[in-house]
């Protein structure tokens, strides 16, 4: 398929529109369609992204951060929708483990998302109405293909590092398998090379909760002026439990009652953990599109790198020269360490350079987003060593 | 409160009504109110139950089986609603671990349930309409108090054994704490003396799914001719995942597709695990009342024996002469072995006779309902030894 010459990011920066959340947009027109795994071409489409730090003259210091299921491109600066800090500001910024004085950080909203990149809430150019379920299904490889088009558009031939946790880690693995020459180093965190039956099951519960909401309207809620908020909130609540460990919930809430010492003998949010979950559900529907939730969970369910390579994960990584660091957390039961070990074994079988760390934490899957000094030290150390190997300059100053 | 003289079970057998599922009913009139933990008296009310085997002349061979969240009294014979075998026929019957040639087995539907015992779907005598949410909240101690009234009605002073798994095990522990003289032996399986924050969280998701369904109608769906089936199905799906282990789901379904080898790129039930879950949800709404689900999950959430005894679980069991056997399963993450160990430690501190077995199984919480030879052997052996101590005759024949 025809590919336009790379254009500098300034082109896109100039295209910011007042009617969209602040940020950068890369638009791909009829001359640059994206052929999806579902077998159809998506065109036109756009990718919303943010950048932090400066791309050096050699274009050798670009770090691509891949976000998780409900994340977005606002990784290290205020989110214009929620007004909250970026979702990984603890990790990314001047002097932080991913040091923006040193690296040029790119983070783009995934295909199928709802923060500016083309997704089911975007207008279908053929009708002018929101796609809804008429958007073809999206896969993790599709998301990565779109990111690769963005990276090329930015004039970058090789990413210094691709990293991310959870679904972000799936994208990292897909990058490493599919674009071997474009990935100098890769840091997949709390992730897996395929989604497990249990994880598919939890996602299916969330989807059924959304689709059971009459306000979902067969996916046409945006066109019909409705919102399946109740169903989406239930989906979020169920998922949120899986992000935390039993121990984290025990420590945070235990069996403590809300506002009093005894039960109310009602179905009010008696326990603090109930109140917390309800809040999580309510806050989520303010910032996320229900159909995007269907699309992105489905993408994770379909993810299975080995299946795409004749059943062999090692084959997927054959010939790789990427430097890998794999990280898992002891209390993560959504993407348990065993999943990471499978990736490590496959990389070893492929002769890759790989280090592996299982971090002791009782915070569950969400540990990758939280204050985990060992994760910060590992990330900083891995990037430092890769930078030396890449011949990058040391920290600025 | 006044108590009527015990009547033989035949009295109730005569009262079977054609408009209710086949089975026994014990009715408690205005002279026998049940004072609930919520602070109000429930009267009149009824308990639906089944019996298997024969009560001996000494009335010393009665075994009370307590059912789990969505179980019922049809433990060892066909269920008249579903047409399926009793839920624990693998365990209970002639020559089986709980040998009905030897023991008189009683199983009653819990208070708040929907299989004949008074619950939110029962008619409020004051209005003639289904209670819905006007029924006071029910606790596990309330359920056990109602069972104790049934046992006394049957003329039984001491139960040879009280046993059950999951919420059934909670009732066993409550029996042992509250009716020390009535319980010769107790076998709580895969259970806990208090519900964890994670378990409360999962229950809250289920309740929110039901209450989010517009057909729930604020709990008045029966009066208004509606049914919150979609919400109840989602609740069941979410809960069902917690009954199985990650490994059991992997072994049963893995990532296998339904009916074909490749994804459909749709939101159909592509994976076998999705189809299975949807079926579980659909089948459940055919047999269970949504408000009962709210009430019974709430009862489990409130359960905390230690809290009812000044914060000390050992104090709850002080002075007990009951013989205990505690059983857990290695892959049960809903009621993990740590929960059982806490009970064992408290019983030891109370000077009780207690044995403990953690059974190696990868089937998850539901292992207690499945073909687990070690569970059968432990149950048979524990009952045999207790029978000798009780001076019961050996197996018939």
UniProtKB/TrEMBL annotation, chains A, B:
<comment type="similarity">
    <text>Belongs to the AB hydrolase superfamily. MetX family.</text>
</comment>
<feature type="compositionally biased region" description="Basic and acidic residues">
    <location>
        <begin position="8"/>
        <end position="19"/>
    </location>
</feature>
<dbReference type="Pfam" id="PF00561">
    <property type="entry name" value="Abhydrolase_1"/>
</dbReference>
<feature type="active site">
    <location>
        <position position="332"/>
    </location>
</feature>
<feature type="active site">
    <location>
        <position position="365"/>
    </location>
</feature>
<comment type="subunit">
    <text>Homodimer.</text>
</comment>
<comment type="function">
    <text>Transfers an acetyl group from acetyl-CoA to L-homoserine, forming acetyl-L-homoserine.</text>
</comment>
<feature type="region of interest" description="Disordered">
    <location>
        <begin position="1"/>
        <end position="28"/>
    </location>
</feature>
<keyword id="KW-0486">Methionine biosynthesis</keyword>
<comment type="pathway">
    <text>Amino-acid biosynthesis; L-methionine biosynthesis via de novo pathway; O-acetyl-L-homoserine from L-homoserine: step 1/1.</text>
</comment>
<dbReference type="GO" id="GO:0009092">
    <property type="term" value="P:homoserine metabolic process"/>
</dbReference>
<keyword id="KW-0012">Acyltransferase</keyword>
<feature type="domain" description="AB hydrolase-1">
    <location>
        <begin position="61"/>
        <end position="370"/>
    </location>
</feature>
<dbReference type="InterPro" id="IPR029058">
    <property type="entry name" value="AB_hydrolase_fold"/>
</dbReference>
<dbReference type="GO" id="GO:0009086">
    <property type="term" value="P:methionine biosynthetic process"/>
</dbReference>
<keyword id="KW-0808">Transferase</keyword>
<dbReference type="InterPro" id="IPR000073">
    <property type="entry name" value="AB_hydrolase_1"/>
</dbReference>
<keyword id="KW-0028">Amino-acid biosynthesis</keyword>
<feature type="binding site">
    <location>
        <position position="366"/>
    </location>
    <ligand>
        <name>substrate</name>
    </ligand>
</feature>
<dbReference type="InterPro" id="IPR008220">
    <property type="entry name" value="HAT_MetX-like"/>
</dbReference>
<dbReference type="GO" id="GO:0004414">
    <property type="term" value="F:homoserine O-acetyltransferase activity"/>
</dbReference>
<keyword id="KW-0963">Cytoplasm</keyword>
<feature type="active site" description="Nucleophile">
    <location>
        <position position="166"/>
    </location>
</feature>
<protein>
    <recommendedName>
        <fullName>Homoserine O-acetyltransferase</fullName>
        <ecNumber>2.3.1.31</ecNumber>
    </recommendedName>
</protein>
<feature type="binding site">
    <location>
        <position position="236"/>
    </location>
    <ligand>
        <name>substrate</name>
    </ligand>
</feature>
<dbReference type="GO" id="GO:0005737">
    <property type="term" value="C:cytoplasm"/>
</dbReference>
């Amino acid at each position: 398929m025809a590919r336009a010459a790379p254009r500098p990011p300034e082109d896109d920066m100039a295209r910011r529109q007042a009617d969209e959340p602040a940020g950068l947009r890369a638009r791909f027109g009829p001359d640059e369609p994206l052929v999806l795994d579902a077998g159809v071409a998506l065109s036109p489409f756009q990718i919303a992204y943010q950048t932090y730090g400066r791309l050096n003259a050699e274009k050798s210091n670009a770090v691509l951060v891949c976000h998780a299921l409900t994340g977005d491109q606002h990784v290290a600066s205020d989110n214009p929708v929620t007004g909250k800090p970026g979702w990984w500001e603890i990790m990314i910024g001047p002097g932080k483990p991913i040091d923006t004085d040193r690296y040029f950080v790119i983070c783009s909203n995934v295909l199928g998302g709802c923060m500016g990149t083309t997704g089911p809430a975007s207008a279908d150019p053929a009708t002018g109405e929101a796609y809804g379920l008429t958007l073809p299904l999206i896969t993790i490889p599709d998301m990565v293909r779109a990111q690769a088009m963005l990276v090329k558009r930015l004039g970058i031939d090789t990413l210094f590092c691709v990293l991310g946790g959870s679904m972000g880690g799936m994208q990292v693995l897909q990058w490493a398998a599919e674009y071997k020459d474009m990935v100098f180093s890769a840091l997949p965190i709390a992730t897996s090379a395929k989604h497990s039956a249990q994880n598919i099951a939890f996602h299916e519960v969330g989807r059924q909760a959304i689709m059971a909401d009459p306000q979902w309207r067969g996916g046409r809620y945006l066109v019909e002026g409705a919102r399946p908020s109740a169903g989406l909130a239930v989906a979020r609540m169920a998922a949120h439990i899986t992000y935390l460990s039993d121990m984290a919930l025990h420590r945070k809430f235990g069996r403590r009652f809300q506002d009093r010492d005894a039960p109310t003998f009602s179905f009010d949010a008696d326990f603090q953990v109930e109140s917390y979950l309800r809040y999580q559900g309510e806050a989520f529907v303010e910032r996320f599109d229900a159909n995007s939730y269907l699309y992105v969970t489905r993408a994770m369910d379909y993810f299975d790198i080995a299946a795409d390579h004749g059943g062999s994960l090692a084959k997927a990584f054959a010939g790789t020269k990427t430097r890998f660091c794999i990280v898992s957390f002891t209390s993560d039961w959504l993407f348990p360490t065993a999943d990471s070990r499978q990736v490590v074994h496959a990389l070893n079988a492929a002769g890759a350079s790989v280090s592996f760390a299982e971090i002791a934490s009782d915070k569950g899957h969400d540990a990758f987003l939280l204050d985990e000094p060992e994760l910060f030290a590992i990330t900083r150390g891995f990037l430092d060593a890769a930078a030396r190997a890449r011949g990058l300059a040391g920290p600025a100053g």
